[in-house]
Every structure is written in C-alpha cells, then in structure tokens.
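sry for the spam today, last one i promise. struct tokens for design, 550 residues
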C-alpha cells in the first residue's frame, strides 16, 4: 500500500506547472494510462480476526483525527483545533466558494474602472515614418517623411466626443538638400461631434450607468453570498458535531451491551438462562461495533469534504471544538418576518433595481427610433504656409474652421422597432419574475418562523424521550428477571433517542440561522464572524431563549 506522504508527493508531481511553457504549448499533451500488468499491487493482510479488523478501522479513525498512527504505521499529524469562529475565518481566507465570489466582485469593479476610463481624457501619440522615391529618366528623387500626432479625446456627458490634435509633419528631400528640400510644419486642431436627437442625452451614458449599477448589484450579491456561506459552513460544522455525538452515543451503547453480555454470560453459566441468550447478546455487541465502524467512516469522509470546502489540505487533521454561540431565539411573528425580508433582503433589492434597468432599456430603444441629427465642427491653427520650416510657430491669423449639420431620416428602423418590442416584453417577464420572487421570499420568511418553533418543540420532545428511555433502561438493569432482548431493545431505543436529540439540536441551530438569512437580518463581520443582533431592552420585554452549539 502506498503511504500518505508518498501519495501526496505523487499528486504534487502530477499537478499542472503554470511556469512550464513547454507543457501548455504542446499540441499532443501526455496521457498517463499504463496497462493492467504494470499496475502491481501489494497483497493485503490475510486471516484477520474480527477484533483485528475492528482495531484497524479504529486506527484509521484515530489517525484521521491526529491521535494515533494508522494501521500501516504512518505517524499522526498534530491536529488543528478550531471552533466555529475559526472555521468562519478560514472559509473567508482559503475557501474556494468565498474566493470565487470575491473575484466576481473584483471583476465587476474592474469593468467599472474600464468604463470610467473611457469617459475621462484619453491621450494617444502616434509616430509614423515613410521613405518614398520617384524616378524620372533614370534619376530618382528620394524623400523621407515623419509625422507625429499627439491627441487627446474626451466623451461629452450627454453624447458626442471632443478631440484635440497636435500634428507635426517633417519632410526631407534626400538628394536635393542644397535647394531647401527640408519642410517642417505643425497644426493644432480641435474637432467635435455632437448628436442632438438619436444617441443624445442619458442614453449616451448607458454603458457607464449600467457599470455603476452592476457594481452595486455585485456588492449586494457578494454580501448575500457571505451570509449564505456562513450559514452553510455552520450547518456543516453542526452536522459534524452531531455525527461526533452519534459516535459517542454508539460507544455508550456498546458499553451497555458489553455489560449485558457479561451479565448474560454469568447467568448462562449459572443455569438461569439458556445458552442462546449469550449468543444473542454477543451478536448485539458485534452489530453495534459494525455500526460504530460505519459511523466513524462517515465522519471521516464528512470531515475530509469539509476540509476541502475550507481550502485546507485533506491530510491536516481537524479537531472541532464545542462552542457556546449565543443565537437569540427570534420572537417575531410571521408578518414581522415577511416585512423584514421585504425590506432587508439584498437579492430582492437587486431584482427591484433591475426592473429599472429594463425600463431604462425601453427608453433607450425608443431613442434609437429617432432621426440622426448631428453637429460636427473643427478648428485648426497651422504654421505659416509661406514658411517651409515653420516648426512650432503657430499663426492664429491663418486659422481655419468648419461647421456642419447632418440629418438622417429614419426610413428603415424595423430592427429598432423590433428591439423596442422585445424590450417591452422583457420588462413584462421581469415584472412577473420579480412578483414571483417577492412572493417566494414572503413564503420563506413565514416558513422560517414556523421552522424555528417546530425545531424548538422537537428538541424538547427529544430530550423528554431521552429521559424516558434512560429510566426504562435503568429499571430493566435493576430487575433480575429482565429478558436480555428487552434490555437490548431498551439500549437501542435510548441510543436512537439520543441521536434524535442531537439531530434536533442541529435542526434548531440551523433553523435560527436560516430565519436570520431568509429575513435579511443575518450580519457577518468583515472577518467572517457571526454578529448577533442586539436584544431590545424595554419594560416588560422578556429576553428570548438563546440556542447554543453545545
């Protein structure tokens, strides 16, 4: 069998190397698929007893929790002890879900910065050099020309653009320098193009408006995802604690069954019970141990998946601490919960604001049906035309300008009319989707209140059931005429009651967090910690019952 360290080395060896250009430039990537005869495996241990197999399974579980070596002698790794707050912080540092949501938010900000940059002054400089020649009767005239253009552009707030250019042109006749073949001139020009109808007004700022709003939407989505992640991580954490309690309950049941086996064996030897009763008790112990092995395996698998979700190395053992997390029980009614959800839910706010985007799209589509009416103008200041080496000496007396207006009649706007119709239908669809989503939020908020009450009721009943089964089992143990099967049934029912109690605890914790999430009242600190809401302090106000994680 391959040790875990060797396996990790092999996995690391097969990881993609981002710096290896020769690898990702290959047209035919390497495929590793050896034939069966090369996949030789070492034989496993043979003829193991039941106790040895149980010991190996226990060793796997203990090694996964960093307590003992595994069956192959691999030493344990010291576990990382974390509580629920620590898990939240880890999820916001290395959790893949959080990092992906955070990057989506950053990408939205980058898109906004790109759009803002398009609306600011933008500078460009272009330099071109050209060599040309012309022959006449075997005599060639060669000339070189260098043109440098420095320009700045700026979008106008309500449509159109403005551009300023400084052009320097230098030409030299290479064979005829003595006759003044060098010519240099420059020109400063200002051009403007302004629409008056189509493309004018707020429609011209559509890209910037949408980018600004998209950043707000993404910020709300990111915050909502942080809260959802906290609830989901907390639920996984609670489930792990519940599974650990199930294992502990099973171990308690095994102790009780072992005591029953010893008592039954003594009674069989004394002739008070028939021999099959001893075999029955032994079989119950074996079944309980098999169940325990399966529960440990489920816990290990569940814990490894939890570590993957947190972005941790699966070989790093985690030790989950019991945590006193005070979560006040909600005392609001269904109407209050629905009202809070309609007011605070960030995803509902996004849906509502996106309806305005649809309405703005209709306005922009109507603008596209208007005729084109544009004004264009330019002003230029050149160097003196009679000075071939004017250089940079601009002469305002030689200023030239142009001003024009262009009218384009909307003879063919069929595509634009269809676009307008499509935008109107999309608004109707979005309105229905919003209404359905809003109604669903109301239903979820009302249901979350009932779920908390139901989970609290189920927990109380489960705790009473544990006490009833405890008393029943103690009574059976004190009686000498107890049937071993009755004791086995009582042990099983007590274990089931304990598991139901632990499951009810998890259900109550999750129900309270889901209530806060569904009503938009869940708050998470920047570090990723749960932030309890303050309790109203007023005369006659009873402090709500808290729920804890222990």
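last one done:
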């Amino acid at each position: 069998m391959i040790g875990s360290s060797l396996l990790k080395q092999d996995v690391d060896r097969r990881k993609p190397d981002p710096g290896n250009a020769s690898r990702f430039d290959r047209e035919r990537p390497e495929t590793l698929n050896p034939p069966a005869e090369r996949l030789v495996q070492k034989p496993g241990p043979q003829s193991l007893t039941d106790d040895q197999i149980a010991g190996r399974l226990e060793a796997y579980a203990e090694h996964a929790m960093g307590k003992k070596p595994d069956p192959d002698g691999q030493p344990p790794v010291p576990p990382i002890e974390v509580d629920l707050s620590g898990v939240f912080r880890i999820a916001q540092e290395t959790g893949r879900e959080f990092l992906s949501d955070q990057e989506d938010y950053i990408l939205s900000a980058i898109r906004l910065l790109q759009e803002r940059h398009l609306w600011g002054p933008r500078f460009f400089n272009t330099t071109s050099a050209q060599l040309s020649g012309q022959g006449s009767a075997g005599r060639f005239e060669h000339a070189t020309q260098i043109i440098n253009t420095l320009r700045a552009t700026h979008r106008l707030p309500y449509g159109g653009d403005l551009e300023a250019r400084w052009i320097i042109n230098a030409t030299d006749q290479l064979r005829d320098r003595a006759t003044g073949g060098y010519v240099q001139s420059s020109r400063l020009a200002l051009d403007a193009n302004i629409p008056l109808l189509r493309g004018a007004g707020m429609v011209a700022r559509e890209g910037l408006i949408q980018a600004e709003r998209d950043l707000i939407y993404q910020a709300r989505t990111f915050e909502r995802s942080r809260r959802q992640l906290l609830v989901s991580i907390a639920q996984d954490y609670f489930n792990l604690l519940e599974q650990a309690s199930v294992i502990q309950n099973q171990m308690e049941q095994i102790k009780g069954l072992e005591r029953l086996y010893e008592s039954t064996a003594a009674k069989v030897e004394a002739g008070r019970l028939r021999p099959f009763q001893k075999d029955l008790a032994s079989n119950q112990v074996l079944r309980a141990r098999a169940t325990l092995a399966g529960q440990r395996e489920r816990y290990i698998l569940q814990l490894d998946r939890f570590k993957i979700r947190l972005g941790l190395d699966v070989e790093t053992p985690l030790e989950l601490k019991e945590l006193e997390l005070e979560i006040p029980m909600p005392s609001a009614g269904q109407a209050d919960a629905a009202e809070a959800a309609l007011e605070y839910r960030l995803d509902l706010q996004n849906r509502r604001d996106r309806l305005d985007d649809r309405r703005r799209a209709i306005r922009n589509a109507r603008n596209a049906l208007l005729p084109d009416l544009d004004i264009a103008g330019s002003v230029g200041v050149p160097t003196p035309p009679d000075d071939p080496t004017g250089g940079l000496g601009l002469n305002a007396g030689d200023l030239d300008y142009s001003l024009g207006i262009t009218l384009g009649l909307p003879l063919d706007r069929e595509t634009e009319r269809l676009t307008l119709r499509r935008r109107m239908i999309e608004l109707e669809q979005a309105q229905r989707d919003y209404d359905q989503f809003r109604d669903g939020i109301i239903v979820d908020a009302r249901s979350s209140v009932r779920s908390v009450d139901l989970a609290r009721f189920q927990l109380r009943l489960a705790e009473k059931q544990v006490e009833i089964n405890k008393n029943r089992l103690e009574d059976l143990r004190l009686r000498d005429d107890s049937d071993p099967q009755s004791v086995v049934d009582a042990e099983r029912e007590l274990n089931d009651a304990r598991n139901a109690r632990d499951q009810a605890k998890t259900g109550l914790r999750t129900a309270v967090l889901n209530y806060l999430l569904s009503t938009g009242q869940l708050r998470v600190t920047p570090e990723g910690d749960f932030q309890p809401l303050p309790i109203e302090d007023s005369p006659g106000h009873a402090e709500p019952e808290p729920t804890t994680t222990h």
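The longest strand covers residues 139-155. ok im logging off now
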